[in-house]
Amino acid sequence: MHGLLQLPWWGYIVATLVLTQVTILSVTIYLHRCMAHRALDLHPVVSHFFRFWLWMTTGMLTKDWTSIHRKHHAKVETLDDPHSPQVKGILTVLLQGAELYRKEKLNKETLERYGEGTPDDWVERHVYSAHSTWGIYSMLVIDFMLFGSIGLTIWAIQMAWIPFFAAGVINGIGHYVGYRNFECPDASRNIVPWALFVGGEELHNNHHTYGTSAKFSVKWWEVDVGWLFIRALQFLGLAKPKRIPPKPQLTHDKAAVDIDTVKAILTNRFQVLARYSRYVISPVFREERRRAGDAGRSVLRPVRTLLVRESSLVDAVSQQQLTKALERYNSLSVVYQFRLKLQNLWAKSTASQAELLEALQEWCRQAEATGIKALREFVKHLKAHVPQKA
User: Residue 2: inside a domain, yes or no?
Assistant: First the structure.
């Protein structure tokens, strides 16, 4: 049976992709970045369009999704995390992610504690909440009228898109497999640097590092489709980003550590740590591996990643391997310990600026005194940091 639109075979594929992309953009821009993390403001017309579209294509309510996601960040990878593959298993989250979502939204404590600031107007109470399935059935009728019998397939794909890609792939694989730009204290990973069909959500490690940022990409080669649409909305006066990932500001005529250095390093601590891993630990590791014999290489090979991994994510067996390597190779032990000391600086949440300044100055003096070239060069780079201009 034909619908109102007569399309070639590829036209139906394009139509399906367009419809599913509107849904994923509604999730990533409205539910995720705007509502859950308050990283941007949206014009009321845009916000309500996204709410309406999600009602039509997912039946999800803003308060439910926002509350569950906020709880995920607050309880990440603990027993209270609604969908952690580290706790529940990767196959459970990947294949039953939608079921985990439905189970958690029945938890009234989650909605009350984490649902603050979500819509509570007449439409939300009397239409979206009261009749959450009406939109889905309306979408079924619309797809059938527009595309005919093939519209039933398009509708089925629309209904499966978020449960599979968002609830399964992002929540599951995004905490299990991929690369890490930053060693934030959870197992989040960037699945790929670009995935044009999931709205930038694939950059999950970036997001967990800068949870309140409206922009998920941090490297020039990473593509955040959601951010591209936010910029387009901003150009039209329909969106206003509040925060994006900070960028280190450097001045190379600065040779001393001062309060400005402390402020800049605290703001850019994840980039600082990433640079330390790349320009201090990695070259020292390569040099030790070059000098090691075959037996030494077997000791070093398993710990390459462990040397830069967030220590809370290293299990007991891996910790034993790391300890064995550090006991054998002094220079690796030195740069690893200096990495831990650097992290400890910004963990001192109760310290005054004067105390942090003194601690950083002492760290730099000790690092330079090691005589390790990579450490001395890093200290020079550290001193060049200045606060980001407003």
Answer: no
- Give which of 54, 35, 11, 297 is closest to 150, Cα–Cα: 11
- pLDDT averaged over every residue in the chain: 94
Q: In total, how many domains does the chain have?
A: 2
Both 306 and 183 in a single domain?
no
Closest residue by Cα to residue 182 from 134, 245, 94: 245
Render pLDDT for 176-221 as a digit per residue (tens, 0 to 9): 999 999 999 999 999 999 888 899 999 999 999 999 999 999 999 9
Backbone angles phi, psi at 2, to 5 degrees: -90, 150
Q: At what angle do helices 330-347 and 316-328 cross, to 10 degrees?
A: 120
Which residues fall within 8 angstroms of residue 139, CB to CB, at 6 or more apart?
A: 56, 57, 155, 158
Are 166 and 59 contained in the same domain?
A: yes
- Write 249-252 long-range contacts (CB < 8 A, 24+): 249/385, 249/386, 249/387, 249/388, 249/389, 250/381, 250/384, 250/385, 250/386, 251/384, 251/386, 252/384
B/e letters for 74-113, b = 16+ CB within 10 Å, e = fewer, are: ebbbeeebbbbbbbbebebbbebbbebbeebbeeeebbee
Q: Please give the residue range of the domain that contains residue 275.
A: 250-386
Sign of the Cα pseudo-torsion (216, 222, 223, 228, in order): positive
- Which run of H or E residues covers position 210? none
Q: What's the pLDDT score for residue 224? A: 97
The answer to whether residues 264 and 220 belong to one domain is no
Which residues are within 8 A (CB) of 11 and not within 5 positions of it... i.e. 6 or more apart? Answer: 5
Residue count of the chain: 390
